[in-house]
Design a protein that fits this description.
The chain has six helices and five strands; from the N terminus they run βαβαβαβαβαα. By secondary structure, the chain is α/β, with parallel strands linked by helices. The protein has a five-stranded parallel sheet with strand order 2-1-3-5-4, with helices on both faces. α4 links the parallel β4 and β5. α1 crosses α5 and α4 packs parallel to α5. The site of D-ribose has 8 residues, from α3.
Amino acid sequence: MKIGIGNDHSALEMKAEIIDFLRERGCEVVDYGTNSTESCDYPVYGEKVARAVAAGEVDQGILICGTGLGISLAANKVKGIRAAVCSEPYTAMMARLHNDCNILAFGARVIGPEMAKMIVRTWLDTEFEGGRHQRRVDLITKIEEENA
Ligand code: RB5
C-alpha cells in the first residue's frame, strides 16, 4: 500500500516514528512535508496529501498536526476526501468499516507515538464493509456534488 503523509511543525517527531512504522509494515510512503520545525500553515500540507489521495497518486493519507483538527478540516475540502480524526483505535476501525475514510488524522499534542501506531495498525488492517454503509457514504458524496 502507498501512503501519503503530511504534517505541520508540531508533528515532525511523530511523523518520523510513523514513517518508520509504515515502512516496517511494507508500506511505500510519500512524504509531503513539512520537514521543518519552523511554524507553518497546516492547510498547505492537508491539501497536498488530500489532492494526492483524490488523484490516486497514493492509496490513503495520514495527516498530523497538533490536534489533527485543522489539517483534517483542510483535507475535507478536497472533493472525494473523507478525513477522520482518530485518537483511539475504535474510531479508526469504524472510520474504515463504516465511513470508508481515506485519510487518517491525529494530533501529535494529543496522543503519544505508541497509541498513534496502534491507531495506524488498526486503520491499515480494516477494510470498508460496504452494504448499507455504501449508501450512506454515497449520500455524503451527493452533498459534496450538490455544493460543487
Ligand atoms: C499549530 O499551533 C496548531 O494550531 C496546529 O498544529 C493544529 O493543532 C491545528 O488544528
